[in-house]
Every structure is written in structure tokens, then in C-alpha cells.
Amino acid sequence: MSFIYKFPLKMHVGAPCKAIVDDGDIVKRGQCIAVPEGLGAKIHSSVSGLVKEVTDICILIQADEVQTEEYIKIEQCNSIKDTCFEAGIVGAGGAGFPTHVKLATDIPDGYVIANCVECEPVLSHNISMIEQNPELVIKGIKYAMEAVKATNGIIAIKEKNKKAIASLEKALNDNKNIAIKKLPNIYPMGEERAIIHEVFGKWLEPTQLPIEANCVILNTETLANIVKAVEDRKPVIDKDITVGGKLANGNKQNVFFQIPIGTPVKEMIAKCGGIDGVYGEVLIGGPYTGSAGNIESDVVTKTSGGIIVTIPFPKFEDKVGLLVCACGANENRLRDVASKMGSEVVAVLPCKNIENIRGANKCKTPGT
User: Fold this and answer.
1) What would the pLDDT profile of 58-94 be if each residue is shown by its tens digit?
2) Are 367 and 191 in contact (CB under 8 A)?
């Protein structure tokens, strides 16, 4: 059975990409199908097949009946930064910031920090990957350190993940310039400024970026993608993801490694036996910061972290007030939840720790 795979032209921070294929084209797995115009990242097909339709927002590809794991390799580059650009690597933890931009700096005596916190509840594919293949993270840190000329690496991970920490400690061996920093088991410890506070003991202002603490922070899966691009010349065509919630195979985390980007969300749920009875919504991302998805049209993207099927919404047909926190759902999402509960929103207040930076809410001291 062949599927229609959808490739949104915006899977990253910045402007949507420009398609470089047309309706009726035959494409191969790994082939570049869209390029950035300005800030962005290349998009490659995760399947071999026929381009069914190209629109302003996506490319639809009908996959061939038979697929292989082989792919068209990216061109050989002279730098790690350029390799990341050719591979279309972005922040896989949800932010989607193009990695080649992060690596376009020099920080001698600086730090590369691996964000292995996997902060949101339910999500567990990053920790599972570390438990099984810690070398991918360590190699990724080394390549990133080489790219930015950093002299130190730090693996930031919650102290509760003892099996993953043990795997990292065993794999590190004599890597004296890479250390493990165990973080408290609280939310939102994966926020970049929260990590910097735990590592360096200082707070960056909400307007400041990690580079101002002489460091670059990269997500677990992003580091793994760097390794695959450098060593195997593999573009970002597959994604690790957690599927959980109200599923026929039980209320557990289902971890999937290397799922082709563009795979329908509906197909991922089917891999777990389907939905168990009546449900509330399909949440894309984590419980705190995810958004309501469309089971019929949403697909796995470069930044997809989780697919969570929720219980039905409890009814509360009364007036409610919303407290908007920078570390959780935004106002639109809270209004959406209230609406699904049958509630009337009569007031909205921001958390006292919020600062609005260029239209986005930022917490002054996340994790405290």
C-alpha cells in the first residue's frame, strides 16, 4: 500500500521554502525538493515516488509501493556548518532553528551544550535513543565543538534518567572535555536559559541568546542528525517520535525511531492499534506546549516531538479566567481548551514572570 506523504514548506524558523519540483516529477528518497529563501533549511523527500501536487504551503508525494532505506546523499562539503545546511538540519526539539546558523560562529574557550532534558511529560524518544546509542550524542557534540571552535562540551540531562546517564558515562570513557550535568526533575528545565542557569549559575535576560553565555545549545536529535550528515551524508528525512495517550495498545509511550518525514499522523496512530474509544483531541507536541492537531491532515515533520491522543474534555459550562504562562500553553491554546470544555472566558492575565519579546512570551526565570 502506498501513502501520500506531505512535506510542509515551513518546517523551520524563517520563511517557507521554495519548491524546486513540479507536479508529475519522479523523486528519489533523499532528493532535495525545496530550498530556503532567506532564513530556513532545505527540505528533502523521505520517500521515492511521484509528485502529486505542489502548492504554496506543501508538496504532496505519492510513495512507491516498495521503499528502501537507501537515499541520495548530500554533496560533500568543506565544513560542518555547510554540511548541516545541505542536510537541512534544524532544531529537532520543536524550535526548528536552522542549525547551520547556530554553527556559524566562533567561541574559543566556549561550550557546546547538549540539551538532553526532554522536558515535556510523555515524550521519551530522546532518552530512549541515548540509552541505546549514546555515541550519537557524544559524536555530535564533538562535531559541533569543532565547528564553533569550542573547547568544552556539556551534556545536560535530568537526574532521573539514570539508565541514560549510565550509558553516557560508559561511552564517554576518556573524553575529559565533555562533562555530564545532572539537572533537577522539574519543568521547564529544558528551556535554554534554565539550562544555562543550572550550568553556569547565572540568568540571561529574556532578550539574550545562549551565545552571550559563550555557548551553543543543541537538542539530542539535532546532534544525532549532525553525525548522520557528516559521516553518512544523510539529509534530514527521518524523525524519532513518541506516540502516546488513549491508544488501543495501552496508555504507554510508543517510541518510533527514524520515521519518514511526511508520514501521516493517522498512520502513526494506526501503528499503535488505533484510538481506544472516544477521545478529546490529537495533540501534536508535548502536553504543555503542544497544539491541537488534525488527525486527517497532519504529518510528521522535522520538529514533531509527540503525537498524544487525549481523553475527552471534561465539561465546565461556566465562566473561567486564563492565566497565561510563558512556559506553557499560549492564550490561543488556552482559549481553545476552554472552548472545548464549554467554558466562557471572561478574563485573561499574564503570569507576573512574563516578558513579551518581539511578540513572543518569555519567562524571566524559567524553572524556578
Assistant:
1) 999 999 999 999 999 999 999 999 999 999 999 998 8
2) yes
Locate 363 and state its grid cell: 519567562
Query: What is the pTM assigned to this prediction?
Result: 0.96
pLDDT in tens, 218-265: 999 999 999 999 999 999 999 999 999 999 999 889 999 999 999 999
Q: What are phi and psi of 196, to 5 degrees?
A: -60, -40
CA distances for 20 relative to 33, 59, 89, 92, angstroms = 5, 10, 18, 24
Largest pairwise CA distance in the chain: 62
Region of residue 96 (phi > 0: left; psi between -120 and 50: alpha; otherwise: beta):
left
37 and 15 Cβ atoms separated by less than 8 Å:
yes
Long-range residue pairs from 72-80, CB within 8 A, at least 24 positions apart, any chain: 72/28, 72/29, 72/30, 72/31, 72/44, 72/235, 73/30, 73/232, 73/233, 73/234, 74/30, 74/229, 74/233, 74/234, 74/235, 75/233, 76/233, 79/147, 80/143, 80/144, 80/146, 80/147, 80/226, 80/230
